[in-house]
Each structure stands twice: as structure tokens, then as C-alpha cells.
Amino acid sequence: MRRRRIVTRLGSGYGPGMKKLVLAAVVALSFPAFAQTSNQAERLRDSALNDEIAWDIVEGLTTEVGPRPAGTEAEARARDWALARLKALGFANVHVETYDMPVWVRGEERAEIVAPFPQRLVVTALGKSGATPAGGLTAEVVGFDTLAELEAAPDAAVKGRIVFVSHGMTATQDGSQYSYYGPVRRTAPSIAARKGAAAIVIRSLGTGYHRNPHAGTQTVAAGVTPIPAGALSLPDSDQLQRILKRGKKVTMRLTLTPRNLGLRQSGNVVAEVRGSDPQAGIVLVGGHLDSWDLGTGAIDDAAGVAITAAAAKRVMAAGRPRRTIRIVWFGAEEVGGPGSDAYLAAHKGEKIVFVSESDFGADRIWQMKPGFAAANSALAGRIEAALAPLGIGRGTDPAEAGADLGDWVKAGVAAVDLQQDGTRYFDWHHTPDDTLDKIDPGQLRQNVAAWTAMLSLVANAPEEIERKTPAP
Ligand SMILES: [Zn+2]
């Protein structure tokens, strides 16, 4: 099926994009070193369409470790699992780099309408949420359709009440509404706290109509003591909106009993494919090892660490590449990135010439966004040409990487984003339903094929990989 689809794509259409590709192919053929790297990348890409390595990692990690909340004993078990698996795969320099971080853990969680229509609602605490008394707190609910309405509200309208913010993130291929509506989860709790709210519940930042609320962290503003903060599932959020629309005074009892455990150890797991030319710089890729506690973190982000490690392994198996490929399985991404901060602080002096991150599930890659200096446009063209047969088109926005490697891109390091289809991703993201069955093995293999081709081309590029901006 997949092969037939590839042929159809190549056979159909010969627009301006395809002309550029042909040009890239002609340029590659006229320089034997480039042609050689392109030929090898294509061979590796095609054999990766039968990959089993990524599935074995994602299946093993989600089954043998399960949920991996940052800074907990489960995340430590995940690091042990990762060390053993990466060593067994034959990577070099496999080790953990530790750091300390404040740890928050979930407690009991209950929400119920006391009046006018008594009933339970399904809620989960947002990361860093404050706690209610053990028996819960009961207060009047004040509803806001948008974050802007909450911001504009006088303190008197909010003080002592349970704030409810509803909003309507919808599914998009690029997942962009997660950024657009994200502040409702990240900043609304602190805004409500500053206005004197007793607690806050939001409509989950997600798209799936099931009664699973979506967890996720918040950003606690300076000087704010977190108030109890929870997310309602989408159907429960709709229900609360309908109840509020009846115009009667609505009272809710909210019970959230999370705890702060203080500073605990977390860590990043590192492994390498050793390159032959230490002067050529390091290619840094990865995803994150931690997950939210409700599901088993299959799409977020066992898939990402599996895809990148499988691709690196396949490049390694084809012979020593020119550049070292370094894989990092970051810890503690979900709680605001102390793992990526620690990594950047410890390694910013190294010659890291390229970064790329996989942290958006396991559905097929549809777009590649290059982020190279103008001097490396030929390399971008070779990557584009190698990915086109997988149904991956070149986008116009520059690469940004993600939460764990984005700071490197901001600092001027070259990057490529291999953008996965996010249409289904936010149905399950951060819910109890982020489980292995949501991963389609065929789409996972397409990811590995794309990553293998890109990594092979970048690690073996005969030319130097330049910074986009001079080093700071
Ligand atoms: Zn993630």
C-alpha cells in the first residue's frame, strides 16, 4: 500500500516545487560526494519503512515502565530502562546527566455541582496546582468565555469564587491552536489567583469528546501562590456552561489534594553514534522520557524517543557517519523543562551544529521545515528531495524545534522540523488515553524513514553546517 502511494505521488504533478527537486537532484549528481550521501540516505529511508526498532522501544517503555512523571521514582525507573535499551542497541557513551527539580504529585480529585443541579463533573488537577482542604472547598462559580474576559474582570467579580474559563481549541493538522489557546491553561490560574479567586477550573486544553480531562502544567507568575486549579473534560465543560446559562447561582465543591515533595533528582539520558570527524560538529536529536501520570505516555513522548533512536541506530548500522549523532532522552519536559535547561547550561560550549526534536506523537510526517543558513541551502535541498517520496512537502516557516531543543535554534543553531500530523494528537494528549493502541505502526515507520534519511544526510554532509547567526 505504502509503496504504491509513493509511486502515485511521484507520478502526479510536476509543479515548481518538483522542478526545484529535479534541480537539487541534478546538482547532487554533478558532485559525487553529495550524490553518494543522497544515495545512501535513500537506501536507508526505504529499508526503514520496515523498521521494528521504534515499535520495540515504544512498546517496551510504555509496558515495562508505564507512566513516568518528572522527578518521581517512575521516571528514575525509566532512566534505568533507557540505559539498558540504548546500550543493548549498541550506542556509545550511554549515560545519565542528573539535576534536581521541585516535584509535584497529584492527589485526590473531585468536582461536583452542589446547586442548582447536584451532580459530579470529571476533573483533573493542573500541574503545580495548589490544594483544597481535604474535604474540598465550596464556592460560587463565575464563568468566562475567554481569558481576555477573565483579565478584564474586576477583582470583586472573582474574589472568593471558583473561576471557570471555557474556550474552544479545535483540531488542526499543525496543532497550532494548542499554542493559541495554551495561555488558558498556563496563565489563567495565576491571573485568577491575583484577583483573589478561591480556585479555578478550565475547559481542558484538548480536542477529544470523551470524559477524560487533559492534564498539563501551568506557569506560576512571580509572587503568586498557586490556587487549586483543575481541567474539566470537554463534555463536563459543556455541561457546566449549560448549567451557568440557566442564570441561577451555581455552587461547586472542588477537592484537589496534590502535594509538593520538594527537590528531587531527575535526569537526561544520553547516547551517541560516534562520528569520524570531531571537527565537523555534533548532531543533537531527541525527545522526552518523562510523561504525565494519567496515561502511559505513548504518543507523548515514548514515540519521539523511539523514532529518533531508531533512526540513529539505522544510520549507525550503515557505517560510521562523519558527525557524531547524539541522542538525548530529556527528563522533566512536561513540568516546564528543567531537563532541557540543565542540558543547555552544561553543553552550550560544545560544537553542536544541528538540532531536531520529535515530540508530537507518531502520526505521519507531512511537512519538513528547514532552518539552515543560506550557505547550507543545498543540504536543505537534498533533505527535501529525500523526503518527497514519503509524501513530505517543504514548508515555508523556519524550523523552531520544540520545548527541549528550541533554545538552541533561538541561539542560531541549524535545525529541521519534521512536522507530524496533529489532527488526532490533542484528542488524547495528557489524558489517561495516551496509550500504546493510539500508535499506528505504519505511520510510526514513516516517521522512522524520514528521520533516518534526514539524519543520514545531515550527519554525513560533506560541507560544513553553518550557524544561522553568529555565536553569541
Ligand atoms: Zn511532549
Task: Present the secondary structure layout.
Elements: H1 2-11, H2 16-30, H3 32-48, H4 53-64, H5 73-88, E1 92-105, E2 109-115, E3 119-121, E4 123-125, E5 137-144, H6 147-152, H7 155-158, E6 162-165, H8 176-181, H9 183-186, H10 188-194, E7 199-203, E8 229-232, H11 234-245, E9 251-256, E10 259-273, E11 282-288, H12 298-317, E12 324-330, H13 338-347, E13 352-357, E14 365-371, H14 377-387, E15 393-394, H15 406-410, E16 414-420, H16 425-428, H17 441-460
Parallel strand pairs: 5-6, 6-7, 7-8, 11-12, 11-13, 13-16, 14-15
Antiparallel strand pairs: 1-10, 2-3, 2-9, 4-8, 5-9, 10-12, 14-16
The structure holds zinc ion (ZN).
Zinc ion (ZN) is lined by residues 288, 300-301, 333, 359.
Highlighted features:
16 strands, 17 helices, disordered N terminus, eight-stranded mixed sheet, 472 residues, alpha/beta, binds zinc ion
Description of the molecule:
It is a single chain. This protein is of the alpha/beta class. The chain has helices spanning 2-11, 16-30, 32-48, 53-64, 73-88, 147-152, 155-158, 176-181, 183-186, 188-194, 234-245, 298-317, 338-347, 377-387, 406-410, 425-428, 441-460; strands at residues 92-105, 109-115, 119-121, 123-125, 137-144, 162-165, 199-203, 229-232, 251-256, 259-273, 282-288, 324-330, 352-357, 365-371, 393-394, 414-420. The strands form two sheets. An eight-stranded mixed sheet has the order 1-10-12-11-13-16-14-15, sandwiched between helices. Strands 3-2-9-5-6-7-8-4 form an eight-stranded mixed sheet, with helices on both faces. Helix 2 (16-30) packs across helix 14 (377-387), helix 3 (32-48) packs antiparallel against helix 17 and helix 12 (298-317) crosses helix 17. Mean pLDDT is 94; it is low at 1-14. Residues 288, 300-301, 333, 359 line the site of zinc ion. Zinc ion binds at residues 288, 300-301, 333, 359.
